[in-house]
Amino acid sequence: MSREGRPANPPASHRQGGRARRPATPVPGPPGPRIPADGGLPAPVPVAVLLGGPSAEHDVSLVSGRAIAAALAGAGHPVEGWLIDLDAGWWRLPDGALDPALPAVAYDDPASLGAQGPHRAGQVLAELAARDPSPVAFVALHGPYGEDGTVQALCEAAGLVYTGAGVAASAVGMDKALFKRLVAALGMPVVPWREVTAAALETDREGTLADLRAFAHALPDPRLMVKPARLGSSVGMTIVHHPDDAAELDAALGAALHYDERILVEAYLDHPRELEMAVLGNGPEDLESHGPGEAFPGHEFYDFTAKYAQGVSATTGRADVPRPLRERLHALAREAFLAIGGEGFARVDFLLAGDALYLNELNTIPGFTPISLFPAMCVADGVPFAEVCQRILALALDRERRRRRHRLTRADLP
Ligand SMILES: Nc1ncnc2c1ncn2[C@@H]1O[C@H](COP(=O)(O)OP(=O)(O)O)[C@@H](O)[C@H]1O
Ligand SMILES: [Mg+2]
After folding, report:
1. Closest ligand 1 atom, CA of 358?
2. Would the pLDDT of 385 be above 80?
3. 258-305, pLDDT tens digit by residue?
4. 223: domain range?
5. Which atom of ligand 1 is nearest to the CA of 307?
6. Is 57 part of the annotated catalytic residue set?
7. Predicted confidence band at 407 (pLDDT cuts at 50, 70, 90)?
8. What's the CA gap between 45 and 24, in Å, rounded?
9. How far is the C-alpha of 214 from the C-alpha of 222, rounded, in Å?
10. How confident is the model at residue 113 (pLDDT cuts 50, 70, 90)?
11. Would you call 266 a catalytic residue per the annotation?
12. Is 347 assigned a catalytic role?
């Protein structure tokens, strides 16, 4: 659930596609508290950066992971890279193989880079946990496997300290349906939606399609947005312009069901503003939020190409919004982060249609290159990229310290 390859500050001549708006000139005065420049950062600690992963966002993670590794190494932390291939095999990368200049295809054959592997995840994590001191796993993976609680559970089982959200928060953050059910129940604004499963379509195709058509016609605008529940990067998403056109609706459902057995059918918003927030912290006591940043998609919506092709879209780490909206964004972003039990960091994404603000999704491992929006929002508040990475490391260590207090001995058993 990340995005890369977009210019942080596009040239003035940048083409906006169907959109007339342009990135705003930065305005001063973010209300969020700042990461302390002088404290809260960890002493040098060994770090194992996990990058790649068996997900459609493999290549994005390669960029994020190497940027993080370079920043942490530059800040004095001993860093080693672990590449996870598309078959979920783990490879120990030699130091030179973390070079940000290497093209993504170079990682398709890790042995040619001098990497050792493939190893099984459990084997690697047990080996890392047995070291003294054991490294902190910096999980720089996006999408299923790395961002959905799977790797987080593996780290938990191995007893390895890892960055970012825990198992449950990762799973809820990855699943757009679970996320929306949760935050909607808490009274937060979300776009109206229906959920469809492959099983429901198989057993009652006509009834399911009729329900969706009725849903569409009860909306002010009958157009629909169809998306898989657990994916990112806009993969498998389609706008349905004419929900009464059975073929069009069918094709959109099929495209999303290709990637997940559960999909969302949402009310379509016509070119909403895409505002995003960065949240860091482990709980209400130490939460901080930065942003809003904004994306300016060059296509009808922020589809895969609009996110990743150079020069199609634009972003800014500092969106031009009136103060009341800014304050509401900070409050809602924090509320959503706390609602899922977020830890470490997350990017919280909003859609603004006219005056109506909707919470769209929460990414527990957002894109993390120097030009990605999450770090760009922190940088806009005066927090350098390397400091953001170190702060995330410190939050992982802080969580570990708190957890240690809850380790059971026989004397604790009832
Ligand atoms: N209900 C909607 N109406 C209009 N556009 C939408 C809607 N939902 C998503 N989009 C567009 O699709 C993009 C990707 O959707 P999103 O839910 O964020 O999935 P992903 O996890 O793939 O980023 C958004 O950034 C926005 O441009
Ligand atoms: Mg998104």
Report:
1. 1
2. yes
3. 999 999 999 999 999 999 999 999 999 999 999 999 999 999 999 988
4. 192-267
5. 25
6. yes
7. confident
8. 39
9. 9
10. very high
11. no
12. yes
pTM: 0.90
Is residue 176, in this structure, part of any structural domain at all? no
Q: What pLDDT is recorded for position 18?
A: 34
Q: Do 38 and 269 meet the contact criterion of CB atoms below 8 Å apart?
A: no
Find the 351 Cα to ligand 1 centroid distance in Å: 8
Side chain identity at residue 413, one-letter code: L
Tokens standing for residue 168: 């449950």
Question: Which CATH number is 252's domain given?
Answer: 3.30.1490.20
* Angle, in degrees to the nearest 10, between helices 373-380 and 385-404: 100
Averaged pLDDT for residues 354-359: 97
Is the model more confident about 328 or about 24? Answer: 328
Would the pLDDT of 36 be above 90?
A: no
User: Is 211 one of the catalytic residues?
Assistant: no
Nearest ligand 1 atom to the CA of 235 is 22
Q: Is 238 close to ligand 1, i.e. is its CB under 6 Å away?
A: no
Active-site residue identified among 57, 59, 274, 387: 57
Alpha-carbon gap, residue 363 to 165, rounded angstroms: 10
Q: Report the alpha-carbon angle 161-164-166, nearest 5.
A: 75
Spatial CB neighbours of 345, under 8 Å, sequence gap ≥ 6: 164, 278, 279, 280, 281, 364, 366, 374, 388, 392, 395
The last residue of one of the domains, among 228, 244, 267, is 267
- Residue 209 forms part of a structural domain: yes
Q: Are residues 54 and 141 in the same domain?
A: yes
Q: Is 134 a catalytic residue?
A: no
**Confidence band for 177, pLDDT divided at 50, 70 and 90:** very high
Average pLDDT over residues 64-68: 97
CA–CA separation, 212 and 195 (whole Å) = 9
Mutate to test the pocket of ligand 1, among 19, 55, 195, 234 (most ligand atoms within 8 A of CB): 234
CA distance 163 to 156: 11
Tell whether 121 and 198 lie within a shared domain.
no
125 and 68 part of one domain: yes
Whether 6 maps to a domain, the answer reads: no
